[in-house]
Each structure stands twice: as structure tokens, then as C-alpha cells.
Design goal:
Length: 698
């Protein structure tokens, strides 16, 4: 062969062959387990579920934190940005928006963080909080959240975690049910507490995290409650001046009562032991490559969600640095960032991030919008480079490889990577299924693998996790080393473990990360938790999955989301929504199906930028986005886009919404229509838009 041709084709052939071999790698293997008959898989590297990565040394989260603080004493741990200024910007239509100018990150070392934790633990005792009482943390994600959590752990005090976006009814329910006596809260959460102070039965002490502009809320609290009110700094100072000995917990002790975001009804408190969370942390430590003290993690998801709590625990275990941000200050163009100043990712330059699919979808849409706006040669170059990289990942002979990949990365994708700081080497997606389109797009543009994870609050996020060298999309990987994953038959809907070519059924998870159950809710606990004859604890997820030949799991349905139509066809609402959300016009979507009818409909929250760009090209005039969403031509355009997305996803005709309504107002956790993890609250949306749905069916 010509040496020049050989230099081109031999590397491609080698890459193709290696890729083929990699795809055939066994990542999960069958295992014999007890309990209900089914098809069970374990992680291919571990014979039995992992409980601790530091067997005989660390058995609780308190011990893990202390170990890391001693080992990495002088390394940076918690980073927070200093507020330089807070400004109000008024848009042309008269709406006001708060804009922040934030400075560099200021850091607490591991050693300094450990002192802060010990001081908080001592201060808590000196305030009068007893070890048999519970503390609630009701605040946005920040360093004080972790310091309070770890301080409670050093006194064996169980922590109740509550989403900062929780509504009044759910907040009262969570605090009263757990008989919380001390609440740690942020400034805006303090105001919420004041509003419901008369409905709280057991709260005696409130510790507020000081921040510019909080004085009004503190004065209001002092005048309108009988609580013992202290600032976070006061508690730490009190503890520093009056230290007390630690009372370390056992692995079997409850560490956290985590209230779910409540997609249906009131939230349930999931009881997690130190051993439960440690098992998940230990398992993830074996999956993510080269975790260490050189890593920088950008934390912005709710710490009241197990995904973020577990992720930050992994970072602490590895000696990494955690820089705190918010979803509204994440990038240079985020809503709360003052124009001309830097977002969190640009300043921090993280190497690791966790994200939920909704956020990754927005990053994808933002990049596409930017490329389409530029048009011309820039768009042509981006599309060409993307297709070449996609072909390479799919194993095509004509895909970009080697030097060509480096060229595309430098010329085209470097600018995309700069959106998240330019140094991301691994990204974890969890909380909901990630579409294959978004996964591939982010993977190519960021040049970093996406580990798609699957787990639930009830399993401490322990379930399945896709490995860094798995280039497939749409799957959630093999079982984590801390669990077994089993499929059991669901004959009512035709999902059987004997199905060919892949076994299918309800996903059941067993192992040391499976939690104790729901707080003060024995009936619900017995319904979904089971202990088998070998003593293994199992959780019945309600999700439907199938196992691929290599032992990797794919989520294909959910029991609660399946509706049987008039003529017997089954519609999986979640599956349809995931397929339709690929449309550039969709910011959010809820499909609704009435079992007494033969078709479904959809409520579509419009992507303002995409719809306005379309209207501009069509020469359509309108006063505001609300008026545009009501225009028949806009509805027709979005409907056509949904039909195209549905056909691309090979949906059945009855799965495609016959009618849609365009909505201009976004669904946010603050509005109560989605959870903190951005999952739909179907029942609340159905009630809120009952008249709209009725109109669609008429």
C-alpha cells in the first residue's frame, strides 16, 4: 500500500476495530440473587455490592470528611464568589431584572473547612440543640450548606433536607412531620419561614446565612416570631469560644431525611443512613477515571437532591475543589450575570460537572441558536465539523480522526467549550433520561465523555452509571458496584424478562445503597421496599427497563406515565415528551392523554428565542411573546416541528399530539409546576391548565 494512504487508512481501521471491540465489552454480568424471580445483573468488576471504598477505616460520612480534611489539609475545598454589586436592569418592555457583578472565587482549605465544621457543631450544642433533635437545612446550594451538614454529622444529628423552592404546604408538612427544632436557612428562605411561622409546631431556633440585603428579613423575623434567631457566623463564633467533643455516628444511623420534590402530592421523607450514602460514593469512586486533588467541580444543583449531595461527597473523598455557583449565574450569558462580566464557569474553569438533562438541553439549544444566528461560513464550518466528528464516533470510515479531530477542536469547538470554562474532562448527567441527540451534541462539542447515571432518592442515587469509554447514547450504563439491578415481569403491559432480543421489565434495585424507607409512612414503605430471604433490601422503582447484551440498562418506560387510549393503544407520556423536546421550539412540554379518547394533546412552553427568530424571518409583527404564542401560524409551525421530531423518533401515529397549545410563561421550580430537578409535576400542571386542556379536547 502507498505509505501516504497507509498513514490515513490504517489508523482509521485500527480505531474502527478497537471501537468494535470496545462496544462488545461486558459491562454487566448476570447474577443469582434472591427475592422475586427476575433477570438480575451486577457490575462486571465486583462479585458483591461495595459498601465502603475504605473498608475498615471509613464507615460514615463524618469519618470520610475528617479523613479528607486531614489528608488534603492545605488544598482548597470550598470556593464562593464575592458579590461586587447588585443592579436592577429595566428592559424595553418595562420589566425589571436583577443583575449581579461577581468577583473571583475565594477559598476555604480542607483544614479551614474542618475547623468551621467543628465550630458549627459546637455552636449548635451551645445554642441548646440536643442530639435527639433534628436540624433542617432550607437553603440554596453554597458552602455554608455543607458546613452545616458536616457539623450535624459530627454530633450524630440527623439532617432534614428541604428544597429551597418548596411551597408553603409542603414546607410545613416536612418541618412538622420530622419535628424539626432548628432550621438553617438562606435569606429568601427566612422570609418563607416567617410567612408560615404560626403553622410550625416544633421550630425553636433559626440560623440564617448572612448576606447583603438580609437585614430586613432578620428584623421581620425578630418582630414576628418567638424563635431564637442567630446568624451563621454567630453560631460558629459561639462554638469556637466554647468547643465540645464530637459524638460520631454509626454506619446504621440516619444521616439524612431527604424530602423528595413531590412530583405527585406531598413530598415524602426518605431515610438515608451514613452507610447508604457511603456505598454510592464508594461505587462512583471506582467509575470516574483519575479523580483527584487536581479536579475542580462546579456545584450549582440543589444539595437537597441526592444527585448533588452524592456528587459533592465524591469530590470531598477525592480531595477535589468545589466551587459554588447557581443556575442563573452559570455562564457569561446567564440571566443574572451583568453584561460584560463573567459567569461562574468562566471564572472557575471546572474539570468536572453534574447536570440534569434540562440544563444540557438549554446548552445545546443555546449553541445551535448562536450558530444559526451567525449563519454563512461559520454555520457551514460548524455543521461540517460536527458531522465529521459524529461519523468518527459512529465508526464511519469517513469520520474525523487524529489530527483532523485536533483541528476541529481548535478551530470550531474550542469556542463552545469556553461556555463552561474550557476545561471540562467529564460530565455526569442524572435526574432524568438524557436524549441521545443532546448527549451526542454535548459530547462532541465539549470533547468530554458524559456519564449518564440512573438512580433515585430511595437508592441514594445508586443504580446504574455509564462508563467513560462507552460511546453509546440513550443508555444509563451497567449497575453501579454498590447494587444489583433486576428486571421483573410486568405482564399487564407486556414487559417480560423472556422478551427477545432483550429482557424487559420493572427495574428493581437491591444493595447497601437502598434506603430504610419513608419517614412515618410504613404503608408506602411496605409497598415499594422488600427484603428477600437472604436479607438483601430491594426497591421497586416503577421504571421499565431493558438490558442490552453487554449488561447495560436502558430506561424505556415508566408505570405511572403510561395511559391506555380508547382503542387499546398504550402511550408512554415520558417517552413521547423526550422525543418531542428535541424540537427547537420547545422549552418544556407535557403530553396529556385521556383514556376515553383515541388521541393525545400537548401543552408546549415555547422557546422564546427560537419562536421569535422564526417570526422575524416570516415578517410577522406582534406586541409580545404572549401574543405570538396565540397566533395560528405560530402554532402551526411548532406543530409541524413536533411532527417531524416524532417521525424522526419513529413514534406511532397515535403518540403524536393532535392539538397543542403554546404557552409563553416558563415552568420553573418557583412556579411550582416542575420539581427542583426540573421534572414535571403532572397533576399540578393539569390543575393549573385544566381549562386549556379542556379547550384542546373540545
Amino acid at each position: 500500500m502507498n505509505p501516504y494512504l497507509a498513514s490515513i487508512f490504517l489508523p482509521v481501521l485500527l480505531s474502527f476495530l478497537l471501537g468494535t471491540r470496545k462496544n462488545n465489552k461486558k459491562r454487566g454480568v448476570p447474577v443469582d440473587v434472591g427475592g422475586e424471580p427476575g433477570y438480575a445483573i451486577r457490575n462486571y468488576r465486583f462479585e458483591k455490592p461495595v459498601e465502603s471504598h475504605w473498608e475498615g477505616i471509613v464507615s460514615t460520612l463524618a469519618e470520610l470528611f475528617e479523613q479528607s480534611c486531614k489528608k488534603y489539609a492545605y488544598m482548597p475545598l470550598f470556593g464562593s464568589r464575592k458579590l461586587i454589586s447588585r443592579e436592577i436592569e429595566v428592559s424595553p418592555d418595562g420589566k425589571s431584572f436583577e443583575k449581579l457583578h461577581l468577583g473571583e472565587y475565594e477559598w476555604l482549605s480542607y483544614g479551614e473547612a474542618f475547623k468551621a465544621v467543628c465550630n458549627f457543631a459546637s455552636g449548635l450544642v451551645r445554642l441548646g440543640h440536643g442530639n435527639d433533635e433534628r436540624v433542617a437545612i432550607f437553603a440554596d446550594t453554597r458552602s455554608e450548606w455543607q458546613i452545616a451538614l458536616q457539623g450535624c454529622f459530627r454530633r450524630s444529628v440527623p439532617v432534614v433536607t428541604i428544597y429551597s423552592s418548596l411551597g408553603e404546604g409542603a414546607l410545613c408538612h416536612s418541618l412538622n412531620e420530622t419535628e424539626v427544632t432548628t432550621v438553617v436557612c438562606g435569606p429568601k428562605e427566612l422570609k418563607k419561614l416567617i410567612d408560615i411561622s404560626g403553622q410550625l409546631d416544633t421550630v425553636k431556633r433559626v440560623i440564617y446565612i448572612n448576606e447583603a440585603g438580609v437585614s430586613a428579613e432578620v428584623s421581620l423575623a425578630k418582630n414576628n416570631s418567638s424563635w431564637q434567631l442567630s446568624s451563621f457566623e454567630e453560631v460558629q463564633k459561639l462554638g469556637q469560644e466554647n468547643p465540645v467533643e464530637s459524638v460520631m455516628p454509626l454506619a446504621s444511623d440516619v444521616a439524612v431525611i431527604m424530602y423528595t420534590s413531590g412530583s405527585t402530592g406531598l413530598p415524602k421523607g426518605v431515610m438515608m443512613t451514613h452507610g447508604n450514602v457511603l456505598a454510592t460514593v464508594s461505587a462512583v469512586m471506582t467509575i470516574v477515571p483519575r479523580l483527584g486533588s487536581k479536579d475542580v467541580y462546579l456545584a450549582y444543583l440543589p444539595l437537597a437532591h441526592i444527585l448533588e449531595l452524592a456528587a459533592e461527597s465524591v469530590m470531598i473523598a477525592a480531595g477535589a475543589s468545589i466551587g459554588y455557583g447557581t443556575p442563573l449565574t452559570l455562564t457569561d450569558t446567564s440571566n443574572k450575570i451583568k453584561r460584560g462580566t463573567k459567569g461562574d464557569s468562566s471564572v472557575l474553569k471546572p474539570t468536572l460537572m453534574t447536570a440534569v438533562p434540562a440544563i444540557l438541553d438549554r446548552v445545546r439549544d443555546g449553541v445551535r441558536k448562536n450558530v444559526d444566528t451567525k449563519g454563512g461560513m461559520a454555520k457551514t464550518l460548524f455543521d461540517l465539523s460536527y458531522q465529521r466528528r459524529l461519523a468518527a464516533i459512529n465508526g464511519s470510515w469517513f469520520g474525523a480522526w487524529g489530527l483532523e479531530k485536533l483541528l476541529w477542536d481548535f478551530v470550531v469547538f474550542k469556542k463552545v467549550r469556553a461556555i463552561l470554562g474550557g476545561h471540562i474532562r467529564f460530565l455526569l448527567s442524572g435526574g432524568a433520561p438524557l436524549s441521545g441527540d443532546t448527549q451526542r451534541f454535548i459530547n462532541i462539542c465539549l470533547g468530554a465523555p458524559i456519564g449518564q447515571g440512573y438512580g433515585l432518592t430511595e437508592t441514594c442515587a445508586g443504580g446504574a452509571f455509564s462508563e467513560y469509554d462507552d460511546t453509546s447514547v440513550g443508555r444509563v450504563g451497567a449497575p453501579l458496584p454498590c447494587v444489583y439491578v433486576k428486571l421483573v415481569d410486568w405482564p399487564e403491559s407486556g414487559y417480560l424478562t423472556t422478551d427477545s432480543p432483550m429482557p424487559r421489565g420493572e427495574i428493581v434495585i437491591g444493595g447497601p445503597s437502598v434506603t430504610l424507607g419513608y419517614f412515618k409512612n410504613e404503608e408506602k414503605t411496605k409497598e415499594v421496599y422488600k427484603v428477600d430471604e437472604r436479607g438483601m433490601r430491594w426497591f421497586y422503582t416503577g421504571d421499565i427497563g431493558r438490558f442490552h447484551p453487554d449488561g447495560c440498562l436502558e430506561i424505556i418506560d415508566r408505570k405511572k406515565d403510561i395511559v391506555k387510549l380508547q382503542h387499546g393503544e398504550y402511550v408512554s407520556l415520558g417517552k413521547v415528551e423526550a422525543a418531542l423536546s428535541v424540537s427547537p421550539y420547545v422549552d418544556n412540554i407535557m403530553v396529556h392523554a385521556d383514556p376515553f379518547l383515541s388521541f393525545c394533546v400537548a401543552l408546549v412552553v415555547a422557546s422564546h428565542n427560537a419562536l421569535e427568530n422564526w417570526a422575524s424571518k416570516q415578517g410577522i409583527s406582534y406586541s409580545d411573546i404572549s401574543e405570538l404564542c396565540k397566533m395560528p401560524e405560530a402554532i402551526k409551525e411548532v406543530q409541524s416541528s413536533l411532527v417531524k421530531a416524532a417521525k424522526d423518533a419513529k413514534l406511532e401515529r397515535f403518540e403524536i399530539p393532535s392539538k397543542i397549545e403554546l404557552l409563553s410563561e416558563p415552568w420553573t421550580p418557583e412556579s411550582g409546576l416542575v420539581t427542583a430537578a426540573l421534572k414535571l409535576k403532572r397533576e399540578i400542571i393539569k390543575k393549573t391548565y385544566a381549562d386549556n386542556l379542556k379547550k384542546l379536547y373540545s
